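Q: I have 294 residues here and want to know how they pack in 3D. Can you give me a structure?
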Amino acid sequence: MERTKRTLPMVAILMLALVLTGTVASARPPAQEDVSEDLELYLNGPVAGPQVNAVIGDDADENGYTGVVRVADQQAEASETTVQQSATLTDAGTAPQADENGYAGPAFRAGEVSAEQSEAQPVDAPNWDQFFVEPQADQDGYGAPQGIGDRSPDAWSDFHYIYVAGAALRPRDSSSGWDYSGVGCVSRASGSELLNIHLPIPDGSRIDYLRIYYYDTSGSNSTAWVTNYDSGGNFTDVTTVASSGSGGYGTQLSAYSGHVANTASRSYVLNWSAGTNGSSMRLCGLRVAYRVPV
């Protein structure tokens, strides 16, 4: 009997040791050979991507790709959540709204509400129409041949335009400052850097002309460009135009360009360089005239 009493504590200690050993073993990370091939591929990462001049069509974001499209589970879940939220917002309205297709109610008129203007109209606001008394080369019906380039005259549409107010441009370097002069015009206040903005030109369209709208009472001229950049540190000025004179508001048109846009490998930008700093030289707008293939 005495021997049994001495044995029981030892048995209890052994059982406790076995339990603790099993807990530590279960917390141990899996051995390297237990990792699946998919997880190993995920941890190691994909092989370095193609260079700029690599074969076209061998990546999932290129035309001609015929491989497997893989979707991460996390992305799929996020997409489903977004769809559910969108459906909830759509169901919230009992009928189509004025800015939706299918709306048959009365049209909302801005004149029915009282709102302040975004800015005061200056006394010397420009009258751009005075510069278009005669037909211009960047207008339909001017008579300039449309067949310049790599397509026949009937292969291109009439002119389309992208107009950007000067106030939308910003210095591409923080060392230069800018000032707003009213009616969409901007001037460079300090520094010497260009002001620029992205040009959302459609891929495959033909850039024919660049027009500059400006205010200039200085003794210098400003210059604007349509420029494209690639991913290798190179750039090309597609076309350029300069302001002229010092009589105040004016507009000038570039020479014909005929450049066909390739947005798959080029980023297009509107650049402007002021000939001098201060409000005596302002950029009021840049307009690109382009045609699309038909």
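Q: Anything worth noting?
A: The mean pLDDT is 77. The two ends are 106 Å apart (CA to CA).
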